[in-house]
Amino acid sequence: MTMSDPTAWTPAREAAGGRLVDRLDRLVHPVERFFAFVSALCIFGLMMIGVVQIVARRVFNAPIFGYIDMVELSISIFAFLAIAYCERLSGHVRMELFVGRMRGRLLWSAEIFGQLIALFVVGVLIYFGWDHAMRAYNFGDSTIDAEYPWWPSKMLVALAFLLLWFRILVNLIGYGRLFLAPDAPPIAVPLVADVKRLAEAEAAEAGALEAAEEAANEAERIRRARL
């Protein structure tokens, strides 16, 4: 599954509403990238803390206080913050058994129906997620060991779903544009996976891995020859 990106603008694209969809996509995407960066940074930081925790516990018998609590609180960051970015790149699992056989307005109408359902479901998650975070804030809910407050972590989940809601809204507008103009080029919407392109991408990735392995083997041979 790929996310179509605009290249050069043409009168046909602009007339089909492509510029509006592109502007909306460019408005949401930087926020998605920032959230994904924070998520990746959290994973890296948690990995470093884990290394320090192991060394401190095994070598100095002095584990980090509240380490388990830190892990629990960080789950919402690296598990949810990048969810909208993943949707932007069409990284989520899609069931294409039926839509893969559709074409034209039938396909775009099915995609619109799916996006409407997704908007409703994510909207419910936002409402109850925010309510859960506010309840944790009002009641002073905290972790058991170090007593870190839970509400910031729970609030991030609601914010992540809010960003996902806006991404799905952009998808809905993009599919609506394609429904009105089926011949227009897709912009900023997840597309049905092309088997041929997926096979070519996997083959290219496999070739890159083989090339990297050969380069590593050659470097090892040179190192041994110098010894």
Give the structural class.
mainly alpha
Overall, the morphology is flat
Cα Rg = 23 Å
What's the tally of helices? 7
Strand content: under 5%
Please provide a brief summary of the model.
The chain has 227 residues and is an all-alpha fold.
Question: Can you give a write-up of this model?
Answer:
The structure is a single chain. This protein has 227 residues and is mostly helical. It has one domain. The chain contains seven helices and no strands. It has helices at 11-15, 18-58, 67-80, 83-88, 104-139, 151-180, 195-226. Helix 2 packs antiparallel against helix 3, helix 3 (67-80) runs parallel beside helix 6 (151-180) and helix 5 packs antiparallel against helix 6 (151-180). The chain is flat. The relative contact order is 0.16. Mean pLDDT is 82; it is low at 4-9.
